[in-house]
Every structure is written in C-alpha cells, then in structure tokens.
Amino acid sequence: MTDKKEIRLPFPSPPFWELLGIEVVEMHEGYAKLVMPFHEKLTQPYGIVHGGALFSLADSAIAIAIVSVVEPDKKLLTVEMKINYLAPVKEGLMEAEAKILRRGRIIPSEVDIMNNNTLVAKAIATYIILDNDKKL
Amino acid sequence: MTDKKEIRLPFPSPPFWELLGIEVVEMHEGYAKLVMPFHEKLTQPYGIVHGGALFSLADSAIAIAIVSVVEPDKKLLTVEMKINYLAPVKEGLMEAEAKILRRGRIIPSEVDIMNNNTLVAKAIATYIILDNDKKL
Amino acid sequence: MTDKKEIRLPFPSPPFWELLGIEVVEMHEGYAKLVMPFHEKLTQPYGIVHGGALFSLADSAIAIAIVSVVEPDKKLLTVEMKINYLAPVKEGLMEAEAKILRRGRIIPSEVDIMNNNTLVAKAIATYIILDNDKKL
Amino acid sequence: MTDKKEIRLPFPSPPFWELLGIEVVEMHEGYAKLVMPFHEKLTQPYGIVHGGALFSLADSAIAIAIVSVVEPDKKLLTVEMKINYLAPVKEGLMEAEAKILRRGRIIPSEVDIMNNNTLVAKAIATYIILDNDKKL
Fold first, then answer.
1. pLDDT tens across A78-135, in order?
2. Is B69 contained in some domain?
3. Structural domain contains residue C117
4. Cβ contacts of residue A107 below 8 Å, gap of 6+?
5. Which of A22, B31, B73, B99 is deepest in the core (most CB within 10 A)?
C-alpha cells in the first residue's frame, strides 16, 4: 500500500468507503485494485464477512477501473452487477482486482476478490457513462 | 414498523446491519421486508446511496425470507446474486421486499427495493441450505 | 393463440425463432408473451430442454416486450441477461411472460417461464435502445 | 479441430448441439473449448447471431468443463447463468473457452466467447452436481 498516496481520484474518499474501510491501492488504464481489511463490523450472524460488504468492495473496484479510462468530468453509474461467492472470509485482507472488458458508453467489467490467496468472489458488472448534462 | 418487536430472528442483529442501519419489519412464510433509511454514510461521490448498500439490503432481505422457511438450526449461504439498478436514491426510506421462488436445498429468490414509491433496484439470488455439520 | 395473427411485429419471424419453434402470442404496452413447444431437438443429454433454449425464449420475450414501447425504426440490443433455472422441462408448452421494469434508453426487464403450471425459469435482462444511425 | 475425434464425452452429441452446430474441440481438467460456426439459422432480425445462441454455446462449454472433473455417473445441472454481450457476431467461428472456478458440489465457472479475435460475450454460471439417485 506504499503507492497509495500517489493515486489521485477525481473525488474525495466516499462516505461509504470510510464506513466499510475500502481503499484504492492501484489504478491504471482500465484496471484498479482496492482493498478492505476484515473487521467485525462487516460480519453477518456466522461471523463471516457479509456478502454485501464483498459486493461493495467489488463494485467500488470496478468504478475505479472505469474512472481510470473516462474523462474526469464524466459521471458513471452501475447499471447492474452479478456476484458469485466462492469461499467465506473470516479474517485478513480482501483484495479486489477489477478490469474493464471493453471501452465505450456501456462498459462491461469483471472483478476478482482474493483473501488469503483464495478466490472468494467473482463478479461481472455493466456501467454506463452519463452525458455531462444528465441529472442523477 | 409497529410490528417490528414481534419478529423473532434465530440470531441477534448482525454487526453489518447495525453499520448500515438495516432492520427487519416483516417476515412470514417465504417472505420478508427489510428497511434501511437514507444516511449520508451510505453515499458514494455523487451523494446517492452506494450500490453496495442497496445490494446489502437486498441480500439481507432474501436471507430473512429464507430463514422464515428453514429449520432454525440450519445455516444458509448466498451462492450468487444479481442486481439491476433502476433509479438513484437520495433520501427517504429504502424498503426491500423479498420472496422465495421455490423451496429446497437450493433456494432461488427475488427482491424489489422501493424508495419514494419508485422501484429503485431488483435482484435475483440463489441461496444454499447447508448440512448441519458443514463447517463454513 | 387465436390472437396470434393480429400481432404485427416490425420484422419477419427471425430464423432463430423458426429453428427453435418460438412464437409471439401476446404483445401490449411493455409486455409480451411468447411460447415454445417441447421438441426433442431442444434437449440436452438427460432428455430435458437445454438451458440455452429456455434462455433463448426468455430473451426473445423481453425483446418483444421492449419492441412494444419503442418507435419501430429504433434498434435494440441485449446488454446482458441472467437466468435462474427452477425445474426441468420434459414436455408441453413453455410460456414466457416478459415485462419491462422502466422505460428509457437503458431498459431493465424481467421474464418468467411457466411449463405445466410451474415456474421453470426466471430472468432479468438489460437492453439498450440504439441511436438510429448506430451501426451494429 | 484435428483433435476432436479423441474427445470422449460420457454421452452422445445432444440434439440441441446438432440443431445449433455446437462441437467440442478441447477438454481437460476443469477446462473446455467448444465452437459454433456462424449460420444464418442462428440469427435474429438484424442478421447477427441471436443472444440465445451465444448463451447456448457458453452454457454448453461450461457443462463440458465440469464434465471433465466429475465422475461419469454423476448428473449436473445449470443452477443459473449470467451473460454480458460485448460485440455482435456477423460471421466466422464462435469459440467458447470455459473453466471452473472451484470444485465441489456447487461449481462456479466462467466462459469467454471469442469471434474474429474479439471478446464478444462473457458469462459466469453456477452448476450443481446431483446425487446419483436424484430424479430430474
């Protein structure tokens, strides 16, 4: 995480990232790596990380992979996303590596989440780049 | 939400629900309704609720719809889930209504999230009921 | 199927529909119903209908539900689709009912497939309406 | 496709593969490659290959990747699958490469479809291995 300070995002760290403990550690041309450390606050009743926390990390990683290839004044939104869970997370760092699959107005992307050298989740998402004057 | 106190879950309110502000307001045979009020902590850079927060609410609603039909000693896990976002959420209450589509060891389910009388997200998920002795 | 002849599509029956035996039986404002009869040619090694045949019916139903709300000169394409299988199909008619979830340039939709009064598959899809001059 | 004859599947070529023109060209430990040549019968109204045909190829490729790692007497079924379309297919060979993401009773898998050196579709699926005595 030593390179973290060099990553300049076109926005301040979002409140939801602060809440969950999500941080960007790498970002280049169509790729991003974000991490989230295990914390008890992220867990569901069995003591493992809630699927929604993993999804949030995955979705955020894709957003940053896309931010890396669009002009800074463009807005982007998640159209849809699908995630498969492969193993429970009980400790350690979750690392999400996202890459875009194609450029354009509609951007399909994929993301893998690793934890202790195991693939714990994989997702595919579709993002849309909004027109500049588009109101949310 | 007047009936809320009468809902007895087979587990205490999970830490991740506390973090996001998720609460169960209805639960019966294969159905559950959970709510999450808008809060600034849930937002992404455009000031709207992060897709991961909506997904977390949706996933939690499905879990409770399934809890309503399985024996209390059974464990259940999300195999996969897919969500489509239809409109941004900027205020008010998010209400997720989940229902199971079929009983069995593999349980497919769907969930709609409403906000200000608008469908803001729709998801389909697959859950699995674990054998009692299954370690996570 | 008595009303079938009254349905005027903005295109001739596609070759792929002919191949699989797909027909439109209902279409109105944001809704469509398409059917496909069981046939041995649609089966996989266990003698049940191949998941791809069910998906093809579902995707086609959504396309027609969308055709019902866009101008005839517009083109539309599937961005993505996700399907859950609930029960195997061994005989009879498969009936897919599709409806759009929102209008716009990006159209999210859902579809249920029934067979012998059982829900056998459910899908959510995202379609995009192309600009008139857009080359495929 | 010179190695094709050496691939021994635990079942004869399914009718639906014959209908669409799907063939296995490679299969080893958790991996399979299947192909489908462009044909006018596979097209939708714009003259491009129907999304359902691409999905069918993708789903079939995943099935064979899984067949490569389970005992021959086991049955497997698609629980769900999600596909993203990246580019239209107007000619040539569609090549689907599938790999499993994890072994077990529930098998998550992914598949890429290439056409003319372009990624035209990507899918993630979940399969289940049935108990031997399970009736479909």
1. 999 999 999 999 999 999 999 999 999 999 999 999 999 999 999 999 999 997 766 6
2. yes
3. yes
4. A66, A76, A100, A101, A126, A127, A128, A129
5. A22
Instruction: Report the residue of chain B nearest C110, measured CA to CA.
Output: B122
Closest CA to D95 of D7, D39, D51, D32: D32
Instruction: Note whether D79 contacts B79, CB cutoff 8 Å.
Output: yes
Provide the angle, in degrees to the nearest 10, between the axes of the packed helices A51-67 and B51-67. 160
Residues of C in contact with A79 (CB under 8 A): 79, 106, 126
Per DSSP, the residues of chain B read -TTGGG---SSPPPHHHHHHT-EEEEEETTEEEEEEE--GGGB-TTSSBPHHHHHHHHHHHHHHHHHTTS-TT-EEEEEEEEEEE-S---SSEEEEEEEES--SSEEEEEEEEEETTEEEEEEEEEEEEEPTT---
Range of the domain at B24: 4-130
- We report the CATH number of the domain holding residue C33 as 3.10.129.10
Averaged pLDDT for residues C96-102: 98
- Per the domain annotation, does B135 fall within a domain? no
Residues forming beta bridges with residue C121, ordered by sequence position: C85, C113
B126 with D79: Cβ contact below 8 A: yes
- How many Cβ atoms sit within 10 Å of the Cβ of residue D20? 28
Contact A136 B88 (CB under 8 A): yes
How far is it, in rounded angstroms, from Cα A75 to Cα B83?
20
Domain-located, residue D61? yes
Cα angle, residue D68 at apex, residues B80 and C57 outer, rounded to 5°: 50
Q: Is the dihedral of CA B35, B39, B45, B46 positive or negative?
A: positive
Can you name the residues that pair with B99 across neighbouring β-strands?
B31, B110
Residue B37 above 80 pLDDT?
A: yes
Strand partners, D72: none
Dihedral angle at the C-alpha atoms of B87, D120, A122, A64, nearest 10 degrees?
-60
CB contact under 8 A, C79 and A82: no
When divided into structural domains, chain B yields a total of 1
Sign of CA dihedral D69, D70, D71, D75: negative
pLDDT of residue A133: 66
In the prediction, which pLDDT does B98 show?
A: 98
Tokens of D1: 């496709």
ipTM here = 0.94
Note the pLDDT tens digit of each residue in C80-90. Answer: 999 999 999 99
Q: Chain A contacts of D126, Cβ < 8 Å?
A: 84
Report the first-to-last Cα separation within chain C, whole angstroms.
33
Sequential DSSP letters for B93-105? EEEEEEEES--SS
pLDDT tops 50 at residue A3: no
CB B106 within 8 A of CB B79: yes
Residue B48 one-letter amino acid: I
| Apex D98 CA angle, D95 and D104, nearest 5 | 165
Subunits close to D (at least 3 CB pairs below 8 A): A, B, C
Q: What pLDDT sits at residue A114?
A: 98
